[in-house]
From TrEMBL:
Protein name according to UniProt: Acyl-CoA dehydrogenase
Keywords: FAD, Flavoprotein, Oxidoreductase
Organism taxonomic ancestry: Bacteria, Pseudomonadati, Pseudomonadota, Alphaproteobacteria, Hyphomicrobiales
Cofactor (UniProt): FAD
Domain Acyl-CoA dehydrogenase/oxidase C-terminal: 240-390
Gene Ontology molecular functions: acyl-CoA dehydrogenase activity; flavin adenine dinucleotide binding
Start and end residues of each Acyl-CoA oxidase/dehydrogenase middle domain: 135-228
Transcription is among the record's keywords: no
Gene3D superfamilies from the UniProt entry: Acyl-CoA dehydrogenase/oxidase, N-terminal domain (1.10.540.10), Butyryl-CoA Dehydrogenase, subunit A, domain 2 (2.40.110.10), Butyryl-CoA Dehydrogenase, subunit A, domain 3 (1.20.140.10)
PROSITE patterns: ACYL_COA_DH_1
InterPro entries associated with the record: Acyl-CoA_DH_CS (IPR006089), Acyl-CoA_Oxase/DH_mid-dom (IPR006091), Acyl-CoA_Oxase/DH_mid-dom_sf (IPR046373), AcylCo_DH-like_C (IPR036250), AcylCo_DH/oxidase_C (IPR009075), AcylCoA_DH/ox_N (IPR013786), AcylCoA_DH/ox_N_sf (IPR037069), AcylCoA_DH/oxidase_NM_dom_sf (IPR009100)
Ranges for domain Acyl-CoA dehydrogenase/oxidase N-terminal: 22-131
Length: 393
């Protein structure tokens, strides 16, 4: 029996693809066992903040967060295939568990890439153990896709920076202990005048301006800096390097958004297969009808195409050690758009049950929507792919 068939659902043979080594298959099985454990089942998801904290701690206790943060703070290398497999598997089971895992990585990716040894040692072990929650603060009210429009500012004052302004749509905002924050330092206009910083939730001048509720409940907030004074040693990389650091971080984690989309889509397909086999229709079963079979054929083919792009991007980064800006953008837009359409087909196959509150299809329908928007909307991914093509000779 292959390791792949030990995982949930009938659509898991992609784990036998040549992108993976045995350790990847073993890790995916470990994450699956974790997601099915009674410790996770006991977490009450109605209290979203509390559930998120408990999920992060449980992931840390199970030793799974090393995949998101890197296993050593001296050399925090991230294996993209491990991150993608974790997200795909967690998303299959539970959108909030996927979110909890992903934010520990996205929130500290820039610290691993560009933090001083002292900052890495202070932050990464606590985030890896699940004792601290992490967040990534790039977006602003008027600077989402257009990062260059950022106005949150950091002014150098002796050996300190003083931060003023707001960031919005910040995942884990309100419950995070540590934030990677991007602010304008003004070395040059646009994206060349932005730097990256580490801010702690208890830094004076830092506050939560507003909590935000969205269709699939996750901790989210607008955060505020008012005369927030932090040591200059909390800057990541050189002054003016912040945009580059943000993009390098997103290059790693964008393919993992695709993987989360795959997890949601595979769950929708697995649930659809079970439903159409069981649902009586016209003297037979829903599965007997050719229109149903056409839907299943489209869903499965779309998922495999998206998975090939996703794991190609991760493999290229891990094994070929090549830039993956184009590949990650292709994977992110294809997997999230495909997942949306697969989940929509699943809702349709379920009929009225598909939209009933509490049904898995209804949850997946709400979970998938934001993935087409955050970490660069689909339209922005298309522009990234085109820009990479046009600059190649
Ligand atoms: C649930 C959720 C969680 C998030 N978490 C975080 C987080 O943790 N940290 C963080 O920093 N941000 C986070 N974000 C913010 C997210 O990254 C932004 O919402 C996203 O970048 C889009 O920015 P915007 O919302 O300002 O939309 P806009 O930038 O106003 O985009 C609106 C529309 O314009 C389109 N558009 C943009 N540029 C072009 C173009 N050149 N040509 C054609 N169309 C274009 C977009 O594709 C989109 O359809 C999160 C958002 C959500 C919804």
């Amino acid at each position: 029996m292959s390791m792949a068939s030990a995982l949930p659902g009938p659509t898991r043979d992609h784990l036998d693809w040549p992108f993976f080594e045995e350790r990847h298959r073993e890790f995916a099985a470990e994450v699956d066992t974790f997601a099915k454990s009674s410790a996770v089942a006991a977490i009450d998801h109605r209290d979203v903040d509390g559930a998120c904290g408990k999920l992060v701690k449980a992931l840390g206790d199970a030793g799974l967060l090393a995949a998101a943060t890197g296993s050593s703070h001296d050399e925090p290398l991230i294996d993209s295939r491990l991150v993608c497999l974790a997200r795909e598997t967690l998303a299959w089971h539970d959108g909030l568990a996927d979110f909890a895992f992903a934010m520990q990585g996205l929130g500290t990716g820039a610290i691993g890439l560009s933090g001083s040894p002292e900052l890495r040692a202070a932050v990464l072990p606590k985030v890896r153990s699940g004792d601290w929650l992490a967040a990534f603060a790039l977006s602003e009210k008027d600077a989402g896709s257009d990062v260059a429009a950022m106005s949150c500012a950091a002014r150098l004052d002796g050996d300190h920076y003083v931060l003023d302004g707001e960031k919005t749509w910040i995942s884990n905002g309100g419950i995070a202990d540590v934030y990677t924050v991007f602010a304008r330092t003004g070395e040059a206009p646009g994206t060349r005048g932005i730097s990256a910083f580490v801010v702690f939730a208890d830094d004076p001048g830092f506050s939560i301006a507003e909590r935000i509720e969205v269709i699939a409940p996750h901790p989210l907030a607008t955060i505020r800096f008012e005369n927030c004074r932090i040591s200059a040693s909390r800057r990541l990389g050189a002054p003016g390097e912040g945009f580059k650091i943000a993009m390098r971080t997103l290059d790693i984690f964008r393919a993992s958004v695709a993987a989360a989309g795959l997890g949601f889509a595979r769950r929708a397909l697995d649930e659809s297969l079970a439903h159409v086999r069981a649902r009586p229709m016209l003297g037979g079963r829903l599965a007997d009808l050719q229109l149903t079979q056409a839907a299943l054929g489209d869903m499965a083919t779309g998922i495999d195409a998206a998975a090939l792009l996703t794991y190609r991007a991760a493999w290229r980064r891990d094994v070929q050690r090549l830039p993956t800006t184009r590949e990650a953008a292709m994977a992110k837009m294809t997997a999230t758009e495909t997942a949306q359409s697969v989940i929509d087909r699943a809702v349709q196959l379920f009929g009225g049950r598909g939209v009933r509150s509490g049904e898995i299809t209804e949850k997946l329908y709400r979970e998938i929507r934001a993935l087409r928007i955050y970490e660069g909307a689909t339209e922005v991914q298309k522009l990234i792919v085109a820009r990479e093509l046009l600059k190649a000779n």
